[in-house]
Amino acid sequence: MFDKVKKNGTELLGKTNRIVEGTSIIGDIVSKADFRLDGELIGNFTSQGKLVIGASGVVKGEIVCNNADIEGEFQGKIKVLEILNIKASAQIHGEVAVGKLSIEPGADFTATCTMLTNNTREVTLKDGKGTE
Fold it and tell me: Which one has a higher pLDDT value, 94 or 122?
């Protein structure tokens, strides 16, 4: 009568997780929904949605997601399957692999960049861990 129905990815559209300024996480985050990070993450992030790193946000680690907007600081490896938007206030250091790339003038982009082919454009989540 009150059976729980598993939510598929479409029911998570429009819902955003948020880590606020002043919060630090050491570890990995796996999310099917969109995510906004204004705090600090030292670890890996995997999502089938969009990641927004706010102006005060800092990520040190590896990111795999479908779309991303970066206003803050990122150090490590990032793989964005669709569009990566880098704002003027962003600082990017490391390795970048993207489907499409947009960089505003003034951004600090010190990274190697690779454009992805259509064969490598899917994020899957298995057993709570992200895979490419």
Answer: 94
